Amino acid sequence: MSDSYKRLGEDLPTTTQGAGAFVADPRKVKAWVAALPRANALATEQELSRALESLVGQKLSGTQRLGALEEVRAVVVESVNLLERQFATNPLPLPPDKARAAAVAEAFHLMLAHGYRRAAHDICAPSGAVPFLKGGGVLQSLERAAWHYSRALALAWRVYRPPGAGAWQGLHRVHRFAAALKLDRKLVDDAVAGAGQDINTLYVQTLLLAAVNPYAFGQSEQDTLWPITRGYASRCGLSEQPPDGLAPVVPEDADRGPGPGAGEESHSLWLDLRAFADDVDRALGRVRDGQSDLHPGPGAGVRVGNDLLIRLRRAFGQIAARGLVRLPAGHRLDTVLGLSGLHYFLAGQRDFDTFMRQSAQGTVHVIAGAAWTQGAAGMTKVARFTGKVLDQSLGGYRMAWESADQARARVGELVGLNFGDEGEEQEWMVGVMRWLRYEDDGSLSAGVELLSRRASAVALRVVSADGGSRQLSRAVEIFPIDGTRGRCFISNANIESGSRIEVIHDITSHFPEIAPRGPDLLPEVEVLLNAGDYVLLGERQEVAAGEAA
Fold first, then answer.
1. Do 127 and 267 lie in a common domain?
2. Which residue, 207, 231, 354, 460, could crosslink 475 as a Cys pair with Cβ 3.0–4.6 Å?
3. What is the pLDDT of residues 327-343, one digit of tens each?
4. pTM of the model
5. Do 223 and 165 fall within a single domain?
């Protein structure tokens, strides 16, 4: 008995017997499916759940289990699609009823995956060899198991939740056994999946999406990445030797995805990402009007936005950085989400209108020492939350907030970070949410990339060639820690590259070493990043260099 076959049958649901067990004769199952109360979605869901638990756990022959699962599979996937409609367009984090729908949908995929995996194991019993004329059933069972494990992971990622226990381990075990039998690259017809599938492509595709961290991408971006990663599955294969460059470890039997090796955990494969990463760099060099093309395989390329390409390149950089030692932490930081909230605190707890009025009057605003710690009335205007730093590096923090319902964040959102200083001058750092995940205990965990350790509240006004100006917009001036030259600003205004900008600050909010005493005019700025909710603006370097000369 091979090790891969032994593991294939381990850690599956406990065997059940008794009068209440689901009758698994395929002909009777077909009649049972036809009699389901399909007009009552909840009743159908409950019946399917009971049937799947029994089918996965009870003692059956492999072919009998496979036949019964094939009869119920289509209606289970139909129920999953109905459940997904309940939460697909809902803002995150999901309310309890929507979260329940997501959990049930994921559980359905997991139960089907476990059932098909057990069917493959039982067909090959007792030695792990494929019996005569049973190769098609074994291959079909393994492909179905791999597809449903992959779908369970995809559903968890889509709602930014940790995957269910056993999803990754089950997928690893199915692939290992299929590869040992040399069945992993054989195509299987799968009407439910929408096309023919092979286990190796399913496996590598899922590994690729996990490697770039789906929690760092929006739901629509995840939808775009699935077909892209499928195209790269043939070019970013698994290697038995560590290749040069980007290649996270693929665990041999752990219940997790690709990443750096963990302790004594065994592995024998690496995921080679070089072709994917190189194509992203080339696509960034071809960006026109905010769009470019990726070419995962032969044929026409896939049109993608510049923002998605930038996030992919950042993901590849983070893959390389994950192997570096991160410093353990445990301290807490005060945090505020969004540009408006960050501006409010940087401006000394003043709303934008007050900030502008006092700036125009030249009023010196002094923060009453630690007023924000005393429950001042003005503090109710902007929510602030305390987060715990789990670990840190030079580029940022991995953090956790106790309540995801209170700290409602989004991928790409600005974060203000403060050490809770009680002095008159509170220094706020500026970061951005690079990924987030809603944990099972109701908390929120996230990776926060640090953009700047210093920031100042300002306002920006676009000045036209004839001296006219547009409406004022709030902004924050930052000193980027990545070495970006020149002055940089984060604004919520729709400002285009080449614009002439007037920077407005009051006496308490500017950096005295760079801000002029008189009018502060930048002859030309460029858009360094358009994140949707805000833009990162930089002083055009040719102009700045010319003035310096």
1. no
2. 460
3. 888 899 999 999 999 99
4. 0.88
5. no
